[in-house]
Structures are given as C-alpha cells and as structure tokens.
Amino acid sequence: MISKKAELEYGICSENELSADDSKVLNAARQALKNSYAPYSDFHVGAAVMLDDGEILSGSNQENESFPAGLCAERALLGYVGANGGNRKIVVMAISAESEGERRDVTPCGICRQTIVDMTRRQACPIKLVLDSAQNIIVIDNAAHLLPLSFNFDK
Length: 155
Ligand code: THU
Prior knowledge:
- The chain is α+β, with helices and mostly antiparallel strands.
- 25% of the residues lie in helices and 24% in strands.
- It is built from three helices and seven strands; from the N terminus they run βαββαββαββ.
- Strands 1, 2, 3, 4, 5, 6 and 7 form a seven-stranded mixed β-sheet that branches.
- A hairpin with a 4-residue loop joins β2 and β3.
- It binds tetrahydrodeoxyuridine.
- Tetrahydrodeoxyuridine (THU) is lined by residues 38, 41, 43, 45, 61, 63, 70, 72-74, 108-109, 112.
C-alpha cells in the first residue's frame, strides 16, 4: 500500500496583520451576522466575499422552524454568488460568528467545505479564507484544502 498524507497549512495572525482588502471582507462578515436568523441555535454566522472586481457580497445563516433544515451562512452566500455573480470570481471569503453577544470561533461545516470546493472548481481559482475567532484570525490561502479527497462527480 502507498501511504499518502493530506496536510493543512494555515496562518494565525492578529487583525492588524490582515491586508486592507481582507480586513474589509472580515468586517463585512461581522456586519452580515446581524442579519442572521438563528432563533433555534443562537449561533449567528456571517459570511462575506470579495469578487475579482472588488465588490463585496455577504450572507448569514437562516434557520428554519424545522431545525436543522436551515442554511449555513457560507452556503446562503455561495448560492447567491452562483446565481447572481456572473462570471466574476471569488477572491476571498471571511466568516464570523457570535453567540450570546460574544464572538465565537468558527470553521466551515462539512457541507459548506464541499460547497466551497465546488465553487473553487467552477471558477478554477483558489478562494482565500479568513476565519474570525475570539482571539486571533485564521487565514487559509486555498479554502479547498480544508476538504481533502472531496467528492468529485466525475460522470
Ligand atoms: N452554521 C453556519 O452558518 N456556518 C457554519 O460553517 C457552521 C454552522 C450555522 C448553522 C446553524 O444555523 C448554526 O450555525 C448552528 O449550527
């Protein structure tokens, strides 16, 4: 048997080490979580992207009375970008979360990771990911690396 290893390389930094653009996208994600609808989990998530023309779009998690049928912030936003972004590419995506009014650590769930990988394939260009947390910021240069051996519907 051949043994293979998938490693994730990521950076941890403070907010003032972010580039001006990354900082703008992070702040848009923090703003977006104010529009989260999460009465069931009380976990409010905001996501924002910067497209290659500089436009910033954002989204938030939208829960459903038939919890857990709601939508994560990342997928709410990526669905919107897929439907309305034309052929513009996502350069960077930021995610931020709050619960009980306090900032929380947040990393994309499994389904969102697959959706981010799909979007990366569609646009044939890596998406940088900026993850907010109570302490530091995590930066991943290629968000698709978060899901090694992701599903690829190769018909
Ligand atoms: N949630 C997101 O919006 N993004 C994630 O990556 C993880 C989880 C939402 C789903 C649900 O509304 C709440 O957070 C608790 O799971």
